Request: fold
Amino acid sequence: MSNTQGTQSSQDSLSDQATTWVDAIIVDVKDISVPPVQVADKIVSLLRDGLKDHAENGSINDTGDTPGLEGFLWCFWGKLLTLVTREEPGLQGRVILILQELKTRGKTGFEGMTIWSRPMDWNDLPLFGAVSRENINCPDTSLPSGIMLPLDTTQAYDILSGATPEDPTDPTSKAYTDARAAWLNLVRFFMQVWAADVYDFALYGIWFMRAGLEDFDPADPGRVTEIAPPALDLEAASVCVQVAGAQMYRSHLIAGPNGDPTWDSDLRGAPGRGGKRWTGIDGYSPDRWKLWKTVFGEYVAAEGKPSIWHNAVQAAKAAIVAMDKVEEAADLAVVG
Reply:
């Protein structure tokens, strides 16, 4: 056997092992009788013991990382996100507790292991951000066969916006219905993770708010964004302020040259930039918060007009209530 064949065989074996380990972990994640601390222990021990030989030998792959580590983490985070967005979204709170436990494990037992050229450290939740980023490009409208359904059809637009399909059992209709629910569950999960101070998804908050509100035109409420229909985008923005409004209100994140003259746009772009209706700082600010609240109000005021969805109107109303509460709590904190 050539060295190339041997390396490929070893990689395939590690990939199979990773899938087996992750599947065993997901079983325990689903089992609410297993305490989060025990689930975290199992995750750590399976990976640590499974890759122990590679760590002790100082093995590295072609990218300079510990063999098997990236594959496991990518598989683990991917299946965890599928679990909390599609299979059992009711487990989101439990999963956050498990993540909190994982972060306390740090580097212990993983000395000598590297992932993406950095020391393996559970406190960083390595690759969680990278896998999460891969999941927010647009709603996943794939069929069980893996075929991705288009977003630019009338059927996609209507069901993703909140319409009840004529035949819910139709595979295409079901894919769009499931994609809509999964998208909102994904937004809720990321915002809950941020609100629990487990992982910093502040930038995601800006992205969801920008998509849902900053291009909204009361005269043309049906315009399609690059992510999802306007109604779904607005509902996602509503989820953000309902779940992580307090974090948004007090965040000072700036991610762009507007507000940070030292920002290197050539290297880092301007991820905090605004939509058509926001030209202020590339980040959170009181004025941007006010704009978001104003746009929610505009959507509520447009109820009854074409392309204005009742479910999105209700979401906008809930968002305004949530934002009012955040503001009141902040005012009380200042007085106190």
Notes: The CA atoms of residues 105 and 167 lie 48 Å apart. The radius of gyration is 22 Å.
